[in-house]
Amino acid sequence: MFEALLLSLAESAVASALRQSVIGYPLLSAVHILGLALLVGSIVTLDLRLLNIIKRSRLSELASLLSRVAAGGLMLAVLSGLLLFSVQPAHYLANNAFLLKLALISLALLNAAVVHSLTAWRALLAGQPATLLLKVTAGISMMLWLAILTSGRWIAFV
Amino acid sequence: MLSKHLVKSVISAFLLTLLWLPDANAHHGWDWTEKQQTEMTGTITEVYIGPPHPRLMIETDTGRWQVDLGNPRQTLAAGFVEGEAKAGDTVLIRGHRSANKDERIIKAVRATINNKQYTFYPQLLQQD
């Protein structure tokens, strides 16, 4: 059912326009890369600060700023990604690197949702130091997003 | 202080050597293909014209092959657009097979379908 819905994306007007346009797809790829840069750049910086590998700047300010930049990057990446996917859904659904990437994204988003629901996170935004639990989630976050980046790049090589 | 510089130097040297690693292949260039040009006839089972890479799937005597065409711009320039070919059509591919025998991929220099020639890489065409 859901798969049929995804496959039907290929017949949409926007997917058809993207297949025929010479500049549409490269431009959309650039937007996708911009989304990744904002997302991974800010997340890795925040995770390194939480882990105390980066030591400068106040954590409460960084956490509030960088998590918002990451959310903006995520939005750009998801929207552009969905459009890139629509060009040939069946091809991507049969690609193991793509499926792995989706699974890892689910885990990373779950991790982010858990972090934002923690009282330790609210305490951090209020100026408290990072707890061990927050440091563990920062480590998980960094590994997951880097793995997502890698599996995403791998789509073209399987 | 000295050890910090040493660590940085070692990491830089390591990263620099990565530049000399052989490149991986995702349709790009010809390094991954055989040197000689070959011809292959098959029946088209799937046509994909669009980004990131136009391709055909064909059924031949030696099994199912993926045919990489030019990039979208080169494919358009060759005159191969939507409607030029469909599943069931017979195609003659002239191109370079993957150097990896386990990989049934051929990168087309020219495709001939219904007596019409589509040349993706005119400058690379070798005549017998």
From TrEMBL, chain A:
Pfam families: DUF6644. The chain crosses the membrane at residues 29-50, 62-86, 98-120, 132-156. InterPro entries: DUF6644. It comes from the Bacteria. This is DUF6644 domain-containing protein. The lineage of its organism: Bacteria, Pseudomonadati, Pseudomonadota, Gammaproteobacteria, Chromatiales. Keywords: Membrane, Transmembrane, Transmembrane helix. The keyword Transmembrane applies. Residues 30-157 form the DUF6644 domain. It comes from Rheinheimera nanhaiensis E407-8.
From TrEMBL, chain B:
It comes from the Bacteria. InterPro entries: DUF6152 (IPR046150). Keywords: Signal. Residues 1-26 form the signal peptide. This is DUF5666 domain-containing protein. It comes from Rheinheimera nanhaiensis E407-8.
